[in-house]
Amino acid sequence: MTINASIATVGQVKFDETGNFGLWQRRVKDLLVQQGLVKALYRKIKKPEKMTDDEWEELDMKAVSTIRLLLVDEVMYDVMEENSTAGIWLNLEKRYMSKSLTNKLHLKQKLYGLKMTEGADLRQHINTFKQIISDMLRIDIKFENEDKAMMLLTSLPASYEHLVTTLLYGK
Fold first, then answer.
1. How far apart are CA 158 and CA 7, in angstroms?
2. Cα–Cα distance for residue pair 58/21, rounded to 1 Å
3. CB of 17 within 8 A of CB of 73?
4. Low-confidence ranges of the chain (pLDDT < 70)
5. Hey, where are the domains in the chain?
6. Which of 41, 59, 110, 129 is most buried, judged by most C-beta within 10 A?
7. Which distant-in-sequence residues (6+ apart) come within 8 Å of 28 by Cβ?
């Protein structure tokens, strides 16, 4: 399977700074696994002992090009000078998965302010909730399952009151 065919099967999702970086990152890792290039990520800068320098350089260049093909131009400019898979990956993580106080507060504000509007799609609301929780886990903010359940239930509109009551107090 060619890289372009694999990218098409992934949905050709290019990261554009507005999407979910963690989800994009997972898809790119999966694509690198399919292409046999994931060693470039997991081995970071160090080449596996069984590989020649030329084989390692080729593998790393293929992984670099795969990642770059999945970035929009504006994001690509930020990592264009990076020449290794590990360098690009770390640069992107630093930019989009920062563990800074500002980012933590922003995610907490998104979570605590999440409210489903009346008549909105419940599945989409749950997906948004899971995305925020996933983003928080990536920067080491963890919640107990009970707390996550309570936050989700309290984010539902009044039309779900009977369901919430049943789940909270039902037997």
1. 42
2. 26
3. no
4. 1-12, 43-46, 171
5. 3-96, 101-169
6. 59
7. 66, 67, 70
Q: In whole angstroms, what is the distance from residue 29 CA to residue 51 CA? A: 21
Give the gyration radius of the chain's Cα atoms: 20
Nearest-angstrom CA–CA distance, 9 and 140: 31
Phi/psi of residue 67, each to 5°?
-65, -45
If you search the block for the tokens 């080729």, which residue do you land on?
58
Dihedral of the alpha carbons of 53, 55, 61, 63, in degrees to the nearest 10: -120
* Paired strand residues for 161: none
Q: Which of 106, 153, 158, 97 is nearest to 126 (CA)?
A: 153
Instruction: Decide: pTM greater than 0.85.
Output: no
Instruction: Give the single-character DSSP code of 159.
Output: G
Provide φ and ψ at 15, rounded to 5°. Answer: -80, 130
User: Rounded to 5 degrees, what angle do the CA atoms 37, 43, 47 make?
Assistant: 90
pLDDT digits (tens, 9 = 90+) for 77-93: 989 898 889 889 988 98
How far is Cα 51 from Cα 57, in angstroms, rounded to an integer?
10
